[in-house]
């Protein structure tokens, strides 16, 4: 097992590279870091805070936790961690659980509806606290799993973006850990003994089976292709439109 310092430096180096590659942070940014109580968001917050202390530009961080109202969600544990490490933070309470229970239509996705409400609440809090950037803890594995999910089940060639305009048109959403493998985050969070808090969602584990299938597939392939994760994340950023079958691209080429 790697030491805390070694794995922290590896995550920090890859995060810093992504920030540079995609111009994720600039002078004067005020960044809302979404904190769920999971390993990814804790890691992102601590990495960004360390980078901030020696960055060539000045930027601010504020941790924002969205409580969806699920029974049993212990946000006090998260707040204690944020207080202990002297982070600026907001603990926002919403009635998302009540809305989902009342408004969810039969046959529609519980998780998708919940995610939409959580995003809206996060955007609202970011705007309320004068944040122009929202940072999320998605990592390399999330990107490539999403790529496969879209290909296998959606018929689209799409993953995630490291930087994009939020749905509300106000903030920019960034994902600085795009180059960081999940296994490093798992090991780091265990070594640091982060107080993991599960969302207490009543359907947790029932709607993400397809993503778990993609995770298992990648793990299996990595036994024979050790560099498959890096190769796949590289492919997302190395697109050759002329060799794809997008009719819109074909039409544009003909018109030229």
How would you portray this structure in words?
- The chain is an alpha/beta fold and 256 residues long.
- It has a single domain, classed as Rossmann fold (3-Layer(aba) Sandwich), CATH 3.40.50.620.
- Helix content is 51%, strand content 11%.
- It contains ten helices and six strands.
- It has helices at 4-21, 39-54, 75-84, 96-103, 110-128, 140-154, 182-192, 209-224, 228-236, 247-255; strands at residues 30-34, 60-67, 89-93, 133-135, 163-165, 172-174.
- It has a six-stranded mixed β-sheet with strand order 3-2-1-4-6-5, with helices on both faces.
- Strand 1 (30-34), helix 2 (39-54) and strand 2 form a beta-alpha-beta unit.
- It is globular, with a radius of gyration of 19 Å.
- It starts with a helix and ends with a helix.
- The model has no long low-confidence stretch (mean pLDDT 93).
Strand and helix layout:
Blueprint: H1 4-21, E1 30-34, H2 39-54, E2 60-67, H3 75-84, E3 89-93, H4 96-103, H5 110-128, E4 133-135, H6 140-154, E5 163-165, E6 172-174, H7 182-192, H8 209-224, H9 228-236, H10 247-255
Parallel strand pairs: 1-2, 1-4, 2-3, 4-6
Antiparallel strand pairs: 5-6
Helix pairs in contact: 1-2, 1-7, 2-7, 6-8, 6-9
**CATH topology type:** Rossmann fold
Indicate the low-confidence ranges by residue numbers.
Answer: none
Main sheet: strands, sense, barrel: 6 strands, mixed
What's the CATH H-level homologous superfamily?
HUPs
Sequence of secondary-structure elements: HEHEHEHHEHEEHHHH
Query: What portion of the residues fall into strands of 2 or more residues?
Result: 5-15%
By secondary-structure content and strand pairing, the structural class works out as alpha/beta
Side-by-side strand order of the widest sheet: 3-2-1-4-6-5
Percent range of helical residues:
40-55%
Q: What is the CATH C level class, in words?
A: Alpha Beta
Query: Rg, please?
Result: 19 Å
Number of E-type strands: 6
CATH architecture: 3-Layer(aba) Sandwich
Overall 3D form: globular
Instruction: Output mean pLDDT.
Output: 93
**Tally of distinct domains:** 1
Total DSSP helices? 10
């Amino acid at each position: 097992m790697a030491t805390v310092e070694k794995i922290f430096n590896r995550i920090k180096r890859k995060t810093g590279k992504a920030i540079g590659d995609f111009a994720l942070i600039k002078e004067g940014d005020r960044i809302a870091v979404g904190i769920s109580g999971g390993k990814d968001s804790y890691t992102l917050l601590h990495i960004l805070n360390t980078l901030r202390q020696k960055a060539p530009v000045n930027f601010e961080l504020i941790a924002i936790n969205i409580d969806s109202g699920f029974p049993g969600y212990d946000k006090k544990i998260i707040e204690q961690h944020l207080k202990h490490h002297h982070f600026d933070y907001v603990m926002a309470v919403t009635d998302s659980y009540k809305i989902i229970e009342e408004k969810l239509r039969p046959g529609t996705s519980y998780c998708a509806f919940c995610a939409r409400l959580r995003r809206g609440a996060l955007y609202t809090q970011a705007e309320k606290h004068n944040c122009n950037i929202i940072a999320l803890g998605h990592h390399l594995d999330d990107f490539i799993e999403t790529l496969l999910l879209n290909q296998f089940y959606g018929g689209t060639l799409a993953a995630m973006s490291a930087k994009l305009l939020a749905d509300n048109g106000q903030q920019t959403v960034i994902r600085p850990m795009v180059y960081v493998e999940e296994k490093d985050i798992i090991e780091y969070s265990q070594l640091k003994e982060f107080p993991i808090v599960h969302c207490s969602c009543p359907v947790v584990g029932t709607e993400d089976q397809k993503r778990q299938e993609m995770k298992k597939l990648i793990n299996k392939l990595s036994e024979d292709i050790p560099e498959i994760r890096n190769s796949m994340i590289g492919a997302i950023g190395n697109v050759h439109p002329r060799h794809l079958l997008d009719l819109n691209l074909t039409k544009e080429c003909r018109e030229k």
